[in-house]
Specification:
single chain, alpha+beta, 60s Ribosomal Protein L30, Chain: A, 4-stranded mixed beta sheet, 2 helices, 4 strands
Length: 116
Amino acid sequence: MVYTIPEIPPSNNRYIGRDARWRYQAEKRRWADLIALHCRPRPQKPIYRAVVTIRYYFPDARRRDPDNYSGKMILDGLVRCGVLEDDSFFCVSLRLEARKDKDNPRTEIEIMEGKK
């Protein structure tokens, strides 16, 4: 399955070390709603083990650290809407990639069912 979200989530740097708990929670809820809206069709039952590749298509080639785009909001949203059963290490193998697309910045989520 490949899902496309027409946005890129905010960097973790926007919230870490700042007094921004409520803004973070609001943004996390917004991303859960985006995931629920764009991640269709969903599997009949949540996937127990998966390889999840998140590809960020940034509008420029500016330097960004992968740990600031860890996929937390995305994985939590996938669990919340029933695509993944759990987002723990035992259930998800995560890959992060970055590409450039000036005209169409977005986030692509590729999910392949893993071995049980």
